Structure formats: structure tokens, C-alpha cells
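Help needed: design a sequence for this.
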């Protein structure tokens, strides 16, 4: 069969693309280490024989998937399809990548192809460096329970800061709580809302640990130390913030930390002036991201409320586990409204300590 000139050109193009894909796949082969930009650290990604696999912190299995390259236009595509435990195809992940020698940037989305190399809006950006061939691997460290840093909490007999709107201040208690180091250095001050609106007795609470609607105003925070960090160890700038209850999204990006769903999210006092619940999740996220100036909100994890916490306010300590480091937790109570069976709301706010994801 004779081939036309057009067919020959198309065949040559296909062969060139296949050669480029094979060359790039060869360049990707190996182990890469790094982190999510402005997020979690300790990622180790390995490409081999058309399959990508990953672990975090040397112990947590991130799964594996088949990869598909597309170098026909920039930014180049690097997609992955999850390989389920039974060997079948699972969830698709859409990605773009940039490869420069021993540096790899891979931006992955679970819903659509990313258009920019950035973390946020349902996607995350991995910044990776190639591990040298033959480099010794550090064996996974066993979980240790070290003595957590000591803190103290005391009543702060002063009203909430003037930087909060008048309507927000009216919902808060007349005094606050100050968290300090054992040596007395102030870290932050918290004012809790009184009569926090809670869900009705008939509400389904199976997806959360607190009887609250996402977006509900819970209190206000004044950060004193410039190096104060949130549950992801993101450094929070000194300033005044509102605190609103939020639930971690149920998407592919957050599945590894699904046990941590209940949070207080920080919003700038200048931007959050209305006491009404922020019902739109995207609006809440946008305001929270604006407050940090980064690609992710600042968050304070809410430990599930425990019984037997008669002494309140108090700082309690939880030793490290395979999901988090040592935790120092502020236990405090405030009044609740909207449910006759819930007169008081016990909040357990992680004041120090981070997730391992």
C-alpha cells in the first residue's frame, strides 16, 4: 500500500511524539522528594515503568497510578489514574508539569486540568527534587511521645479589640482568654462568642464532631507572636482575626486527612464584619485565603470534645500519634442557643501541634 505525503507526515509526527514521550518518561524515572507548595512536606514520588507511586514521611502510602504524558502543547500534561487495590482503575488525576534537570514541578487537580502552577482551588502543586541514584534511604522513624511544650491559659479581663466590627464585638464575651508560654510570654488572645447558634436536635451530625453549621461565627483571635503557627504549621501573621467554624472539604486532595474535619478558620477582622453565617463555602474559603495572602487558609483544628473536662478553661496535652505531633489543646466553654438540649458548647482548640499531612 502506498502512503500519501500527508500520511507520511502524520506518521512521522506520531513517531516523533512517541519518541519524545519515551524520552521524557525516561527522564522522570526515579524517586523525587519535596513538598506541596505552601503546604504539607515529606512527599516522596517515584516513577517507574509507566506507574507513579508515593509515600509521605516515609510511612504513609499515598497510593499509585498509571501515568499518561501529553507533550503536544505547553504546559505539558502528566495525568495519573489511580490503581485500586483490586487492580482496577480508580479516580483520575489531571496534571501539568515542568521538568528542568533534577527539578520537577507537578500541579495536580482532581476535577479539571490545572491552568496555572499553584496550590488551591481544588488542586495542589508539588515541588520536587530528584533523589541521587544510590542515595541511602532513611528508615521510617517510629512514632515517639515526647514531652510537649508547656503553655498556660488565664482569663483576660479586657474587651475584644477595636479592630473588630461593633456588631462582631457585641456577640463576644466581655472578657477573653490569654494563652501564654510557661514563662508568661503572650502568644494569642481568644474571645468566644456567647450564645453560639447550634444545630437542632434532629440534625444529622454524622459528618462532624460539633453541632455547628459551616461558616458560623465562633469567636475572635488576636495573635501576638509573629511565629504562631496553625495545624499545618503555616505561620500566622500577628493581627486580629475572626474565628468561624468550617469543615474540611470532602475531595480527593484532603482524603489523607479525612479524620481532621472540624476546624476554626481565621478571617481578617477588617474583611469579616457581619455576624451572619457565611453559608457559601467558596466565599468562606476566599475570605480565609485573603487573610493569609497565601494559597491556603490558616486553620485551628478542633479536637472532638471529650467528657471529663470539668476544669475549664484549661490546657490539656495529647501525645504524638501516627497522624499528628504532640498537641496542646485549649479547652473552653461558652453558651449555646438554638437547641434546648445544648446549653453549653465545649470547644477543644489545638493551640500547639500539627498534623503529619
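Sure. Designed sequence:
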Amino acid at each position: 500500500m502506498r502512503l500519501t505525503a500527508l500520511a507520511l507526515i502524520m506518521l512521522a509526527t506520531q513517531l516523533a511524539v512517541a519518541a519524545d514521550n519515551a524520552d521524557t518518561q525516561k527522564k522522570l524515572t526515579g524517586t523525587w522528594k519535596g513538598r506541596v507548595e505552601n503546604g504539607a512536606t515529606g512527599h516522596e514520588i517515584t516513577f517507574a515503568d509507566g506507574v507513579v507511586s508515593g509515600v509521605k514521611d516515609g510511612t504513609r502510602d499515598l497510593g499509585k497510578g498509571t501515568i499518561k504524558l501529553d507533550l503536544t502543547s505547553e504546559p505539558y500534561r502528566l495525568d495519573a489514574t489511580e490503581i485500586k487495590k483490586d487492580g482496577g482503575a480508580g479516580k483520575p488525576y489531571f496534571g501539568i508539569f515542568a521538568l528542568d534537570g533534577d527539578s520537577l514541578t507537578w500541579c495536580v487537580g482532581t476535577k479539571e486540568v490545572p491552568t496555572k502552577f499553584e496550590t488551591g482551588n481544588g488542586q495542589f502543586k508539588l515541588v520536587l527534587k530528584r533523589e541521587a541514584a544510590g542515595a541511602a534511604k532513611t528508615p521510617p522513624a517510629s512514632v515517639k511521645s515526647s514531652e510537649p511544650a508547656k503553655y498556660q491559659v488565664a482569663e483576660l479581663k479586657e474587651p475584644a479589640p477595636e479592630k473588630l466590627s461593633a456588631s462582631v464585638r457585641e456577640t463576644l464575651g466581655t472578657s477573653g482568654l490569654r494563652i501564654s508560654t510557661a514563662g508568661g510570654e503572650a502568644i494569642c488572645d481568644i474571645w468566644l462568642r456567647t450564645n453560639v447558634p447550634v444545630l437542632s436536635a434532629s440534625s444529622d451530625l454524622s459528618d462532624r464532631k460539633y453541632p455547628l453549621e459551616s461558616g458560623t461565627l465562633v469567636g475572635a483571635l488576636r495573635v501576638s507572636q509573629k511565629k504562631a503557627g496553625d495545624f499545618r504549621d503555616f505561620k500566622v501573621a500577628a493581627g486580629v482575626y475572626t474565628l468561624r467554624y468550617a469543615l474540611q472539604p470532602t475531595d480527593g486532595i484532603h482524603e489523607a486527612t479525612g479524620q481532621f474535619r472540624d476546624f476554626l478558620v481565621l478571617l481578617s477582622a477588617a474583611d469579616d464584619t457581619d455576624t451572619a453565617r457565611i453559608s457559601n463555602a467558596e466565599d468562606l474559603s476566599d475570605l480565609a485565603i485573603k487573610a493569609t495572602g497565601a494559597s491556603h487558609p490558616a486553620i485551628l483544628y478542633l479536637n472532638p470534645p471529650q467528657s471529663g473536662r470539668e476544669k475549664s478553661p484549661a490546657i490539656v496535652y495529647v501525645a504524638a500519634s501516627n497522624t499528628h505531633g504532640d498537641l496542646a489543646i485549649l479547652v473552653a466553654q461558652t453558651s449555646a442557643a438554638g437547641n434546648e438540649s445544648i446549653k453549653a458548647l465545649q470547644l477543644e482548640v489545638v493551640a500547639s501541634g500539627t498534623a503529619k499531612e
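The mean pLDDT is 80.
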